[in-house]
Design brief:
By secondary structure, the chain is of the alpha/beta class. The protein is built from 10 helices and 6 strands; from the N terminus they run βαβαβαβαβαβααααα. A 6-stranded parallel β-sheet has the order 2-1-3-4-5-6, with helices on both faces. Helix 7 packs across helix 10. The radius of gyration is 18 Å and the shape is globular.
């Protein structure tokens, strides 16, 4: 499938990557009728995904994990290196902790399961386009139940009275980090903590910079490693 969005349409351009043709075309067809979504192409493996990312310039790539040749995790890293503007969301049947952690560390902005209804998948695509991490609730539970990292993490919160200038996040930022890891949007975080969306956005930017994280999905891994999930 290759149906580029009309110029100026404002639709989120999506590439669907899955090695099973029936599933691949089914996802593409279901997404293609969702408002604000334009499926610009499909690919059958990771190598095809990288090529399509370069030629079609999708905003969001929905990527399967297990595929012959170049698998989804390897493809995430390759897309990040060659087409960094593309946001990659893993869409798979596997919620194995190892796959989740490897995919998020490689740069995926979300990890969803194929049981997700089409309308919710479309919502996840729109959020991914805005840079909001999306983790399937089953995936979040799996991360929360996983064994802690082999090496103890550094202290999470700065001492009382600290401004958190260079080290760990402040207590307020830990609250925000926990909500980010749970998949909350800036608006939801603002409502939960009685803050403005602008304040939340500024806090998240500081958190990512302070902790050396590349995005909200990696923030979820950091939260998992520090027992916040």
């Amino acid at each position: 499938m290759n149906s580029p969005a009309p110029e100026g349409s404002g639709a989120v351009r999506v590439l669907v990557v899955d090695d099973q043709e029936l599933i691949r075309e089914g996802i593409a067809s279901l997404l293609g009728i969702q408002p604000g979504i334009q499926v610009v192409g499909t690919a059958a493996d990771g190598a095809g995904a990288v090529d399509a990312a370069l030629s079609l310039a999708p905003d969001v790539i929905l990527m399967d994990v297990r595929m012959p040749g170049m698998d989804g995790v390897t493809a995430v890293a390759a897309v990040g290196g060659r087409a960094p503007a593309c946001k990659v969301v893993m869409l798979t049947t596997f919620d194995d902790e190892d796959y989740v952690v490897r995919a998020l560390r490689a740069g995926a902005v979300g990890y969803l399961l194929k049981s997700l209804p089409a309308a919710e998948l479309a919502d996840a695509v729109r959020l991914a386009h805005r840079g909001v991490a999306q983790l399937d609730p089953a995936v979040t539970r799996r991360l929360a139940a996983a064994s802690p990292p082999a090496e103890p993490p550094r202290p999470l919160v700065e001492p009382a009275g600290s401004t958190g200038a260079a080290g760990s996040p402040t207590a307020r930022e830990v609250e925000i980090l926990r909500l980010v890891a749970a998949g909350a949007t800036n608006r939801e975080i603002a409502a939960e903590l009685y803050l403005s969306e602008g304040t939340v956005k500024n806090h998240i930017s500081r958190i990512l910079t302070r902790l050396g994280l590349r995005g909200r999905a990696q923030a979820a891994l950091y939260a998992r490693d520090h027992g916040l999930l």
